[in-house]
Design a protein that fits this description.
Layout lengths: L5 E5 L9 E5 L11 H22 L3 E5 L12 E6 L24 H21 L1
Length: 129
């Protein structure tokens, strides 16, 4: 999933299915470096992806986070994380990051399958707007 400013991928090292990463097409390190066009497109992506995640995963809400501080990940990127209704208390809020880079990452096949379902739903959201 992509447009001229942004691309979306499933996090490759998450134990949570549906954990998405929204990445600008050009290299920037801070939000302040975005052009007005990139910034305008960003808001639409965040809302549409959150809606698609809600519909496809049944999550209670989506978390949106941006730090860009981890070694090797200093470029601007946003995490869109589906928070399931049954999430344990210790995983809610910032605790969700314990599911990143864990030993129990979702399989590539599972990531691909949910990505296809999200793309289909996202296409429907874009057509209806």
């Amino acid at each position: 999933m992509a447009d001229e400013y942004w691309r979306v991928a499933h996090s490759f090292n998450s134990a949570l299915l549906g954990w998405l990463v929204l990445i600008p097409r050009r290299h920037v390190t801070t939000i302040a470096e975005l052009t007005d066009e990139e910034a305008a497109s960003l808001g639409g992506w965040q809302v549409r992806l959150s809606r698609a995640l809600t519909e496809v995963t049944g999550c209670a809400k989506t978390y949106l986070a941006q730090f860009s501080e981890a070694p090797g990940f200093g470029h601007l990127h946003f995490h869109l994380v589906p928070r399931p209704p049954e999430f344990a208390e210790h995983l809610r809020g910032p605790g969700v990051f314990s599911l990143l880079a864990g030993e129990e990452s979702q399989s590539e096949a599972a990531q691909d399958e949910i990505a296809l379902r999200l793309r289909e739903r996202l296409d429907g959201l874009i057509r209806s707007s």
